[in-house]
Structure formats: structure tokens, C-alpha cells
Amino acid sequence: METIAIILAAGQGTRMKSILPKVLHPLLGRPLAAYSVEMAALVCGRPPLVVVGHGAGQVRQALGASARYVVQAEQLGTGHAVLQAEVELADFAGLVLIISADMPLLRAETIAALAQTQASNPGPLSLLTVSGPDPRGFGRIVRDADGGVLAIVEEAQATPAQLAIREYNVGAYCACSAWLWQALKKVKRSPKGEYYLTDIVQLAVEEGQAVVASPVAEPVEALGINTRAHLAEATAAIRARVNLRWMEAGVAMIDPGQVYIEPGVTLAPDTTLWPGTYLKGSTSIGSGCVIGPDTIIESSTVGNDCRILSSVLEFATLEDHVEMGPFCHLRKGAHLASHVHMGNFGEVKDSYLGEGTKMGHFSYIGNASIEGNVNIGAGTITCNYDGEQKHPTEIGEGAFIGSDTMLVAPVKIGKGARTGAGSVVNRDVAPGDVVVGVPARPLRKAGK
Ligand code: UD1
Ligand code: CA
Q1: Which residue has the CA at smallest separation from atom 10 of ligand 1?
Q2: Residue 314's beta-bridge partner residues?
């Protein structure tokens, strides 16, 4: 049957104690709500309808075209929130999934199964439940002696006997659209002044209609986020899930509890991740690499058999067999060809280092194009910025840059040329020449 999802994301999330709307708090690099939005799109084959309210503009901007939106101008409760979608879905006659934006661990398989349950339910409503010792403020599932669902009672309204119930409302529902809208209009304000979505369960039961409540397979899926402590718990759970998937795909982790891999990252088998590794954004890592300890890689491409120790890479590219660290910093536009070696304390930005080039110690290379097999001596610096503009440096194949050379850009060093230790090079050096001094002058011309 046709299915569409409504994601509830209009609440402020006061328990987070934050100016940022709860559903935008980052969870492994992505806004919390992005998880349920993506999952719902997968299940329904189309973008969900997100109910926005508190921080509506910010939420829409963060989720962008991945969803459609309706506004709940005043946050009068979850029942009221769902009702705001009626106008948008007036012509829709299928099943409506309703999911809270603060349930990031719900899996697509679980929600698809919920839709399946409702498709074969003669009654109008199905929902997910979870059991366990810790109620976490969830609504309690009240059942009759035969196990039939009677109602969901919110914690604030529950009797002591109801509070002792250990089956809870997860906050994911599937309803027949035609029934849903009229039921929501019958919901009365709670003593707290809100229209509770959960009240539609009792309404169905009073009509003599069947409500099916089925337990989630893995209790961790029901981890909802109301507080920062919950957010930390969910981060750990999602991280464990992501890490397990990569280990199953052949990635080694010395201590998976200390490895952070964001959902957009890809890895190839036989790569080893040491503790303190953070892989972020759209990073991709080839096979046979050893990364970390203590390495942050953001939206970078790393080839095969690279070794990266205690370094930070941002928007960089490494080809194969690159070795770097400890303590290197690759910034946007750094591109290291195969077999480049970069030792301790190097920074590269907007530069290409050709195959086999070595940069052992304490260097800054910016806006440079460096061919292969160049030796960049300790302390070499491209003086690429004159206070107003950036200027390029070009270094030819096999050149030897002496320790502590200042390359005052724009400047070109020819193939096979050499600069003496401590030279300040502010004029181009011809291929094969040797220059020394401040400012650098030719000591020997090529071939002489
Ligand atoms: C809700 C359920 C509770 C369930 C729990 C599980 C109700 C009344 N209670 O409680 O039974 O156990 O989820 O997660 O539904 N929202 C709006 N507009 C509003 C109010 C809330 O869009 O006016 C959104 C929030 O942004 C949030 C979701 O609805 O994403 C749930 O709201 P929240 O306040 O977190 O409800 P809970 O107290 O957790
Ligand atoms: Ca909640």
C-alpha cells in the first residue's frame, strides 16, 4: 500500500537547555533529524513531510530538499503537530507513518515492518513498543488481560500502577489516513494543555477497532533523545553500529570504542584504524592503510597503503603509499601524489606534491606546484602571501631545496636546481643551477 511519512520536529526540546533546536543537535556530524528523514525516505520511496515550528527556518535550511515541510505555528502537542499535515495530505488515501525526529536509531527495516503490520491490520492503527527497566519518561502501554492494547498513558498522567508498567511507547506509528484525521480532531487537551497523539489509541479502542502494538527487535532502536545525556548515549550507539558494519566489511579497529566514523565515510578492507581516529564528512579511505592514533580526516580522499600518524587532514587528496606524521596538517586543496613522504610538523595547503617528493621536517607549503622526487629540506617555507595576495611557487623534478630556504613567491625553481641552506630565493632559479645566500644568487650555473 502507498505509504507516506510525517516526521515530528516542531518541538523546542527544552530539556536540551540549548538555543539550538533539539532536532538540529549534531549526532556523528549530522543533524539529529536527518536520521529519521533519511530513514523515512528509504522506507516510503519519497521525501517525508516534516512538521516544523520551533526554529522552523533553521530546521528547513539544515534538512533542505530532503524533505517537504508543514508549519506548526504553536507547539500544542504531538497530536496537534500531526494534524498540521492534513491539508498537505488531503488527497492521500494510503498509510501514514508518524515518527518523532528525536529517534535516530530506528532502522528502516523496523519501520517497513511497522507499515507491513498495519497493512494487514483490520483496524486503523499500529505502533511500536519497547520493554525494559528504564522508562526514560516514555508513555506506558496499557493492555487488557488478553494482551489487547487499551491505551497509552503519558508519564505525567499515569497512576502508580500504570507507572509500574515496563512496556513503553517508542513514538512510531502507522495509521490509515482517512481514520487518522478525524480521530485527531476528537483528541482533547491534556491537563498539561497539549493535544497528545497518543490519545488516538484509546479512541480506536473505544470504537471497537484493533490497535496492534509490536515490540522493536533491538531495544537500542528506541533510544529517544530528550537530553544531552541521551544524545551522548545515542552517539555511542550509532557509532557502535557504524563501526561494526565496517569491521564486518574488513576494516580493522584496535579499539572500536575510540574510533569515530561519520555516516558519509567509506573505507576499503584491510585498513587499520588506531584509537583516536575521527573520519568525517565525505572522506574515503583505500585498502591497506594504517590511520592514527590521534588523527582527524575530514572530507578527504586517501588512496591505498597510506600511513597517517597523529595528523589532521581537511579536504585533501592522498594517492597511494603516502606516509605522513606525526603532526602534519593538510589543508584544503593539498594533493600528495604516490610515495610522498611527509615527516613531522609539516603544513600543506592548495598545493601539489609530485610522486616521491619528500618533506621531512617543519615546512609550510602553500599555493605550490611541486614535481616528483623533490627534496624539501627542514624548515622550508613558501612565502606565498604578501599581505594582500597569494602567489604561486613552482618547483621542478628532482630539485633540492636546502634547509631553511624561504621561497618568496611568485618564484620558480627549475628541474634539478639546488638552494643552499638558509637562502632567501626571490628570483627564479634556472634548471640545474645552485643558488645561495640572502637574497639568493647563483653559486654555480648548470653544467659548470
Ligand atoms: C512522546 C510520546 C510518548 C513516547 C515518547 C517516545 C506523546 C504525547 N508522547 O513523548 O508517549 O513514549 O514520545 O519518544 O506523543 N513535537 C512537535 N510539536 C509539538 C510537540 C512535539 O512537533 O507540539 C515533536 C518534537 O519535536 C519531537 C516529537 O514531537 O520530535 C516528540 O515530542 P517530545 O516532546 O519529545 O515527546 P515525549 O515527551 O518524548
Ligand atoms: Ca521525545
Answers
A1: 138
A2: 298
- CA-CA-CA-CA dihedral for 367, 373, 379, 383, to nearest 10: -20
The model's pLDDT over 89-123, given as tens digits with 9 standing for 90+, comes to 999 999 999 999 999 999 999 999 999 999 999 99
Residue length, the chain?
448
Residues 6+ apart with CB under 8 A from 158: 140, 165
Average pLDDT over residues 130-159: 95
- Mutation choice for ligand 1 from 35, 100, 138, CB with most ligand atoms inside 8 A: 100
CA of 254 to the centre of ligand 1 (A): 39
Amino acid, res. 204:
A
Which position among 230, 321, 341, 361 bears the catalytic label?
361
Ligand 1 pocket check for 35: Cβ under 6 Å: no
Residue 361 bears catalytic tag: yes
pTM exceeds cut of 0.85 = yes
Beta carbons of 423 and 440 less than 8 angstroms apart:
yes
User: Contact at 8 Å (CB) between 50 and 62?
Assistant: no
Helices and strands per DSSP (H, E), number in the chain:
8, 40
Pocket test for ligand 1, best of 72, 78, 80, 190 (most atoms within 8 A of CB): 78
Tell me: pLDDT of 158 over 80: yes
pLDDT digits (tens, 9 = 90+) for 351-403: 999 999 999 999 999 999 999 999 999 999 999 999 999 999 999 999 999 99
Residue with cell 513531510: 49
Query: Which of 193, 77, 91, 55 lies closest to 69, judged by CA?
Result: 55
Own/partner long-range contacts of 318-323 (Cβ < 8 Å, ≥24 apart):
319/355, 320/286
Q: How far is C-alpha 308 from the geometric centre of its chain's CA atoms? A: 22
Strand 375-376 with 328-330, pairing: unpaired
pLDDT tens for 101-110 read: 999 999 999 9
List for the chain the helix, strand, coil content (%; round to 5): 25, 35, 45
Q: Ligand 1 in contact with 154 (CB < 6 A)? A: yes
Mean pLDDT of the chain: 97
Report pLDDT digits (tens) over 213-258: 999 989 999 999 999 999 999 999 999 999 999 999 999 999 999 9
Nearest Cα to Cα of residue 22 among 33, 36, 30, 6: 33
Banded pLDDT at 447 (limits 50, 70, 90): confident
Q: Are 380 and 398 in contact (CB under 8 A)?
A: no
